[in-house]
Structure formats: structure tokens, C-alpha cells
Amino acid sequence: MQFDKTHEMFRDSLRDYLESEIEPDVQELDKQEMTKEEAVGYLRDLRKLGIGFDQETAQDYFGDLKYYVIGSEEISRVWPSLNVMLNMSFPAMFANWASEETQDALGDKLEKGEAIGALGVTEPGSGSHSSKPNTVARKDGDEYVINGEKTWVSNAQICDLTMIVAWDEENDAQDMFIVDQENSPFDTRKLDKLGWKGSPTGQMFFDDVRVPEDNKLSNAIRNLILEHGDLGEALPFPNEMVDLFLSHKPLNAIFSFMRTGMAAMAVGIQQAAYEDALEYATDRETFGKPIAQHQLVQNRLYKMKANVETSRLLTHEAVEKLSNADEESRMYSSLAKGYACDKSVETARHGVELYGGNGLSTDYPLERYYRDAQTMTIPDGTEEIMKLIVGYEMTEMSAYA
Fold first, then answer.
1. H or E element in which residue 290 lies
2. Which of 71, 97, 123 is the last residue of a domain?
3. Mean pLDDT, the chain, as a whole number?
4. Of 231-235, 299-303, 318-322, 377-381, where does mean pLDDT reach its minimum?
5. Which of 54, 81, 97 is the last residue of a domain?
6. In this structure, what CATH number is given to the domain that contains residue 370?
7. What does the pLDDT read at residue 324?
8. Is residue 357 one of the residues assigned to a domain?
């Protein structure tokens, strides 16, 4: 995948911001979850750089997925938690075609790109099984009444709105529903975790939560088509990619998009671990010479570099497939996510061990890279689930059961 001068200028501007405004304080920033006010501040900064979910910015950032993959890699190279907060706000894009009540509640947050979103899929006891959620939506007049629970939701405690997967009892089918906190308040609870310490994560509880019927995603998409006449003119994706939302289940299309972004995140973590390990190996001396002169240290650096480059190439291939709505896009996004996230753990581990005792110290970033890398292997589908999806796509035989 080739980048032109515009892509390179975007990358350089983003890198300058991250290295000047985030990197000097990232060790401290990552010690506690960002507040809602802090998150909004980051969204404002990133919007100035051309990254965001308001309609104007999103048309450019997601209209060419090369920007998206550059953004995910570069931000994650410095602070993966920031990228999680950012990218999990994507349901805000769909709120523009939800009910008037929701649009009024969010107000100019949508226009300014300051609406914080969340995606609720995982449920207690269900794990990666999302085809028949226990969260249910019952039709009652011109509203849906939602009952259920979601867990391991990024941005849960700070979101303005969430898009959740629920079982539509009326149609006896899975669907997604947009729920905003002002009109349809729901409770949340914080969850602590191994990595991504700066990214808020929690549970969501829905107890007779009422949402307008236009907040059902399939209805919102219908409204979008009625308004624009063409889904491709409204959604900020390449026209070919819009086909995924029409030919696949919306959740599968969303996951293909998210998993490609997760692969790019994993590449960013690997790049950071490799760069720090290389610098350390050329500076640190033992037995009167830099440790980079020892053969086994060079062996580690070789493996780290190989992991970074192969993960990046596979991720770029997944981006190409996704941009063109290739029939193999679901397989490649899952393949890239599974491979790159697994290799990010291996690469970070090599970095920790190359640092020796210092690799275990919180004074150095390697232990953070390792925790963040390990966290990458589970959200949006574990490595095992990725293998089963790829296996199904290759053989057309399901091994899920």
C-alpha cells in the first residue's frame, strides 16, 4: 500500500502533535482513566488534525482508509488508550440519523465532533457469542424497551451515547440500538484491567430503558437512505465499503472495520517497543561494549523487526480489501487482527527481556507496551475466534459449535 504526499503530511502532523503534547507525559497519563473533560479535549485536538466523527471531518478521515490506518498506528505508537477512546466513539456517526430526541440531546456535540460514543456487544456469560444476545428490546408503541447488561465496554462511564446489540423481540432477530444518556439514562460501573489503563472501561445496565423506534439502527439507516437517496452519499466511507453494510450483517461489517483498526493499533505498539529496544541496545553497555554487539541481542532485534514489518504488511492488505469491499475483507481483517495482536505480545516481550531488570520497571515504557499488547489479544474477538472466522471464510464450514 502506497502513501502519497498528503498521507505523509497527515502522518507527520499527527506525529508532531503526539510527540510534543502526549509522549512527554504519557507515563503519568496512563496511570488513571481519562475523564470525560480530558477526552473531549483530546477529541478537539485531533479534529484540528483531521481526525474525528463529525460529518465534515469523517468524510475525509474515513473516506480514504489510509488515513484511518495511519492514525490508528501513530496514536497507538504513543498511547493506545487514546486511540481506544477515539475509535470507540464511532457510533456518534450513526446518531445523525437517529431520532430527533437523540439529535436534540446531543446538540452541537455531533457537529463539533465532541460526542463520545461506545459499543456494547459483550455480555456476562456470553463472551464472544453475539448472534443471540440476552439483552432484549421489546416494542411498546413508538418506543423500544431495553433490558439487559453489557460488559467490557470502552468509554462506558464517559459516553454520551452507546450503540448496543440486542434481540429485537418483534422481528425475532438481532439488531443494534442507539441509546443516549440524556433521554434514556442507563447505569455504568467501572472495570479495572491489565492494559489500556488510560481508557475508561465498564459495564452497562439497562433496566426498562426506553428509546425511540428511530434509534434502532436498521430504522436509522432507513431514514438515512430516505434523506439522501443513497447510503453511499451519507456514510463517510469509500463507496465500495458501503456495500459491506448492505450485503453483510451490520455488526459483521462494523467488526471488519474495527478489527482492521485493532491490527493497526498492534503495529503501533510493536513499532514503539522496537524503537525503544533498538535505542536501548545501542546505548546500554555490558562487558565493555554495547549490548547490541551481542549475537543474541541482535537475534531479538531481528525478530522484533520482522514482526513489525509482517504485521504492518498484512494490516495494509486488510485495508486494501476493506476499502474495495473485497469478498475476502472479513477474512483479512480477522487474519490481520489475530496475527498482529499476537505478534505485538511477542515483540513487547522481546523488548522487556532485552531491557533486563529495567524492562520490569515502571520507570521505563516497556512494561506498559507489554500490558497494552496483551490487552490487544482479546477485545473485538480473541485470537481463537479470529482463527475460527478465518477458517470459516476459507472452507465455508463452521467450527464455532
1. strand 289-290
2. 97
3. 92
4. 231-235
5. 97
6. 1.20.140.10
7. 85
8. yes
> Which pLDDT score, from 0 to 100, does residue 64 have?
87
* C-alpha cell at position 203: 459495564
Mean pLDDT of the region 69-82 = 98
Which among 342, 345, 355 is positioned nearest to 383, based on CA atoms?
342
Q: Which domain range does residue 365 map to? A: 250-394
Has residue 129 got a pLDDT over 70?
no
Give the number of domains in the chain: 2
111: pLDDT strictly greater than 80: yes
3-class secondary structure, 259? helix
Q: Is the pLDDT of residue 128 over 80?
A: no
The per-residue b/e assignment along 323-346, b for 16 or more CB within 10 angstroms, e otherwise, is: bebbeebbbbbbbbbbbbbbbbbe
Cell numbers that stand for 92 in this block: 456518534
Question: Is 314 a member of any domain?
Answer: yes
> If pLDDT is split at 50, 70 and 90, which confidence band does 232 have?
low
Please report where in the chains the cell 497519563 appears, as a residue: 29
N residues, the chain: 401
**Contact status, residue 72 vs residue 81, Cβ threshold 8 Å:** no
What are residue 168's DSSP bridge partners? 137, 173
CA distances from 73 to 18, 77, 263 (A): 12, 6, 9
Q: Is there a domain that residue 174 lies in? A: no
Q: How far apart are CA 348 and CA 350, in angstroms?
A: 5
Dist. CA 230–CA 227, nearest whole Å: 8
Decide if 202 is inside a domain: no
Cell numbers at 161, concatenated: 451515547
Rg value, the chain, Cα: 21
Residue type, 176: M
pTM over 0.85: yes
| pLDDT score recorded for residue 62 | 84
Contact 18, 71 (CB under 8 A): no
